[in-house]
Every structure is written in structure tokens, then in C-alpha cells.
Amino acid sequence: MSALACALTTLHADNNSVANTPIYELKEYIVSAGPVARAIEDYSSPFTSLDEAAIRKEGGSSLGELLDGQAGVTATSFGGGASRPIIRGFDGPRVRILEAGLGSLDVSETSPDHAVSVEPLLTDRVEILRGPSTLLYGSSAIGGVVNVMGKEIPRERVDSTGYEGAIETRYDSVSNGETHLGYGTIGGEHWTLSVTGLKRNADNYEIAGDAEAFHEEAHDHDEHEEASSDELGSSFVETDYYSVGGSWSFGEQNYIGASFSSYNSNYGVPGHEHEHEEEEDDHDHDHDDEDEHAEEGVAIDLERKRFDLELAIFDPIAWIEAARVRFGYTDYQHIELEGDETGTVFERDGLELRAEAAHYEWSIIDEGIVGIQISDTEFEATGEEGAAFGPATQTRNQAIFISEHIHHGDWHYEFGGRLETQQINAAGTTDYSDMAMSLAVGIIYDINERNSLALSLQRSQRHPTSTELYADGEHIATSQYERGDANLGLETAYGVDLTYRYQGNKWEASASLFYTYFEDYIYAAEADATALGIVSELDVYAYDHVNANFYGFEAELNRILFRSEDSQLQVGLMSDFVRAENRDGNDNLPRIPPLRMGGKIQWAHGKWDAGLLLRHAFEQNDTAPLETETDAYTELKADLAYTFQLGSGIDLTLFAQANNLLDEEIRHHTSYIKDVAPLPGRNVTIGARMEF
């Protein structure tokens, strides 16, 4: 077993332990924050991780769906194909999506209907970082970092059998969806090869009520009744994914690895069938053509090819604990289809290089990480909506970063910094060039063996995106005409986090309060179309700077009620809340998730494993101008699994998962299309998994 595998092991005390020994031994590690895994107790900010077992249990088909429900994490929702994580109310470019430390380099941050090109069910681990450690990965990560550790490059040697892997199939009732996947690894003394593959095919999903939300001030009862439907149009998803990778080990832990992956997805974009029917009518097409076009709706055909290379060397010289170099190249394209016609084509080609080194004790510093990061991407959107995303651009980014730790008795100090320059060359308009400097410091006080208090302070700067600078056109997905501002400068955020952690005999708890003040927060605000000289049937929004506040809390509590040699019963509670205000306009910022509270119970006995989760989201009436309110909902989930040991190291697990058991009409307030596209109704997933 590799050092990384050992580091990720979570240890528990058994029943023979003395009474004051915690059952929760804090032995979980962060692998995202550098080339060497570090204990989470070394970091002042809240941290969340899902291992492979937890990922399978959640079973999301998109990264946002997978992480929605983690403390402080919600998701965008745009039908069955596109969902991106939102951390503490921050989304888009303020949350960086990484694959093994490198940017995903898709276009999911440019629009909510663009999918994240990551396949959750072929993932070893997902980590969510906040606070000072995010500076390792980009100044734009003001909200946080989601780092996905996939199976593409084998980073560990296989066991003595020389092979390992799994195959799985699952079926869900809400969309007649079928998912088939598998992965395998073979290896020898120094070499390891891996392959993965997945195929998903899901129809339009069923919904609990009407597709269109009923707002008394906007609709009469008759119109609401006519909108009734038992499924959401254009919510289908078809995905094909595969990867091949290999690595060569030398020395005790060193390795060099490479992989190639291909991600293809064709998915519907809900909420536009009626709009296109009206467009056909305006162009005097016959009735049959209108029905066909409306039925086909809007879809996205996405294709991403990616090549990754990784080198890790341990103890190369006396003062370096480990060094890691990563390189990634991505060729991305997606086509937005309106029926059979091509609407807009998005293309992004890019490369990223990242080199980092973890050092041993030096002077008063106990350990730390230094590194550089370079990226170069080209982006272009052509066609019907091309103007909404600006001209063709080339974006170059260069950064140096540092993260250091000092231990002094019961006190632990963490500080970091990042200096990042960015240049955007735009065709036919003003270029952008600037330097961002971000700094952070964290202090942890170990009150005693079980209690600790952590404070982190952060000053982060973010470069504007090319869309925020140059957009000038109708964006159908958000139903807005968007106008950028080429004179936008840096966005600066000042944040404070206070976190309490408790590790007891049978208790585990954490609670965080956070506050972030923005100078020159960039967002699209309602604008005067006449003053801007814009003629459009859509509402006009212009990107601008405002001063803003974000504040809230996250809390989790877990308790082991019973534990024996082969059984464990555990309960947990969670709650989170965020509020975001435009200080200049004295109103609320849009699409902020509401207060949530929930509880869960997990039971394991021999070969059985079961869980039940109940979560309530309150109504959201702290809305921005022109934004509708969202009703409260209660979500009930359940899961059950049984594992057969077939011998020769082969396990067969039969599982069932149920989501939205109450068949609630669930609408995420974070969604641009919440009023026309609710989440799926009651859904039961059954499946089988064989591991060898």
C-alpha cells in the first residue's frame, strides 16, 4: 500500500479502548493541498471530502448533484445534464473545479446550462477546500475549490494479485435511466495500467407537479392548470466516457503517469420549448413544424478530449519532502442544437502546467508548499448566441504561490499568498492585463485534546472573466441580454472564518461562521436598455462593480449511538445558511440558497448497510429585483445495500437508493430556470456492483 493510501485511512478505536479514547480518531487527510497528504487538523478552514464509497452512495450523475447537501454546498440545476457546485452562495468563476489539481478547462463557469465535464461515478475522491488553502489553486477561488481525484492515472501499485477493478450497472425509475460502468487496473513490480468506461442513457425525468411554478401575481389558475405535465421536457441525458492511463514507479514511492480521456454528452436544455414554438409561429411555419420543433427543443452536444501527465518524486533533495509536476491539455467543444439546427458552437483549447514542492522544517516554519502555475487557453463562441459571450479570446495566466505552517505548542499558524498575472487578448476590442495579489492567515488553538478553535483571515483578488468584460448579446439560457464592461478591474474580497471543532468519545461536531466583504464585486445587474442603446425583448443586464456582503454559517453534528464488533448505528445533524447583500443598492443579490436543516441515520451490520436522510429547505424570500421567491420543500432519501462475498477476492453488492420519497416539488433557488424546471420527482434506483 502506498504512502498516500495509508494517509487516507481513517482509524477508529475499538470497544476495548479506554473510556476517554475517542471513537473518532482524526486521521483523515487532505490530498488536494500539495504533493503530500496533510491532516485536516492542520487547516484552519472547513474541509469536506467524499471517498469512493460515499460517492457511490450519493450516486449523482453530475458534480453539482453529487455534492448538493454537503454542509455549505448547494448546486445549480439546469435539467438532467448540467449542475455545478455552489459554495456559500458563490458560483461560476468563484468556485474552481479541478481534476487532480488542474482546471477542468470546460466552459461550465460561463453559463449555468453548460455541464461540468467530470464523471462522478468514476471518481476516487472529491475534496472541497475553503480559506487559505484555496490560494494554492487560483485567486478566483474566493468561494472555494472542488478537487476531483479520478481514476485516469494510477497513482498506487496494485496488490499482490496484480489486478483490481469493478463493474456496475444501475437503473433509475424517474427517467428510465440506465448507467453501466467499469474500471480495471493491472500491474507488475514497476508498471500499472488502468482503463475506465461509462455509458448513461436517461429519458426526460418525471416531476412531482407542474413544470411551471405558480406565482399568484403572475398567473391565473386556468393557465396554471393547462401547464400541467408529468415530465420535464428536454431533461434527457446521454453520456459516454472512457479513459486509458498508465504509470511507472521507481524508488519506493516515485512515479510518472499519463492518461487520455474522452467525455461525450448529449443532453437537453429545459425551459425553451415554448419559446421556440413562438419563434416558429412568428416565422409563419405550419403547425406540424411548430410541434416538431417544440418537441425537440434545445440540446447540447458536448465533446471533450483530455491528456494528462503527472510526475511525483519524494525526497529528491535534503530539504524537499516531495515534488509534483502536472500537465494537462484539453480540447473542448460543444454545439447547442435547436431541433436539428446548429445554434451556437463553443470551443476551448487549453493547457495548464503546475509544479509544486513540499519542504521540510526551515527556520521557524515546520512545513510548507511553494509552487508555480501557468495556463494558456483559447475560447470562442460562434453562432446565434456568440455575441453573448464576447469575441474570440486568448487568456494567459501565470502565478506563484506559497502555503506555510508553524506549530507552537497548542497554537498552529497557517499563512499563504498568491501572486497572479492574467492577460486576455480579445479580437477587435480592448485587451485586459492586470496582477492580482491574495493573502491569507489562519490560527488554530487546541483548547484541549478534543476541542479546537480556528480563525482564518483572507484577502483575495479575482480577475474578471472574458464574458464579464466583453459580453454583448442575448443569452437564451438565462433569458437575459447581457452587456459586459471592458473597463472592469479586479474584484477584491476580505473574508473571516471562525470554526469550532470537537472530537469526543462518541461525538464529532463542527460549526463555522463566515463573513466576506467585497469591494468591486462583479455581477450582472438590471440595466436601462434605452440608455445602453439595446433593443431586445429580453430583460437587459449589464456587468458592473458593487460593494457586497456575504455572511452565514455551517454546522454539523455526528453521534455514534451504538457500536459493536460488526455493527454501528450513527446519527447526524446539519444546517447551513448564507445571506448576500448589495450594499450599494440596499437589496439582495440573486440566486442565494435558503436556510437548510437536516438529519440522517446510518446503520451497518455485517453485510448490510442502510441510511436515511431528511432535509428541509426553507422558503427563500430574500430576493433580488425581478427575482421570484421559492417555496420551502422537504427532501427524504434512503439507501440499502447488501454485499455477498463470492470468494477469490470477489464481492457482489446489490443496492437500492430512493430520492425525493415524499414526491415533493423541489425548485432550487439557485437555478435560473427554477420557475419552469423543477428537480425530479420520486425516484428509485436499483443496481449491482461487482468488485474484484
TrEMBL record:
Domain TonB-dependent receptor plug: 41-145
Family matches, as Pfam families: Plug, TonB_dep_Rec_b-barrel
Signal sequence, start to end: none
Keyword Coiled coil applies: no
Bilayer disposition of the protein: Multi-pass membrane protein
Subcellular location, record wording: Cell outer membrane
Acidic residues bias: start-end ranges: 276-293
This protein's UniProt keywords: Cell outer membrane, Membrane, Receptor, TonB box, Transmembrane, Transmembrane beta strand, Transport
Domain called TonB-dependent receptor-like beta-barrel: residue spans: 289-661
UniProt key word Membrane: yes
Main location: membrane
Region (Disordered): 266-293
UniProt cross-references to PANTHER family, sorted A to Z: TONB-DEPENDENT OUTER MEMBRANE RECEPTOR, TONB-DEPENDENT RECEPTOR NMB0964-RELATED
Family: Belongs to the TonB-dependent receptor family.
Name used for this protein in its record: TonB-dependent receptor
Annotated organism of origin: Thalassobacterium maritimum
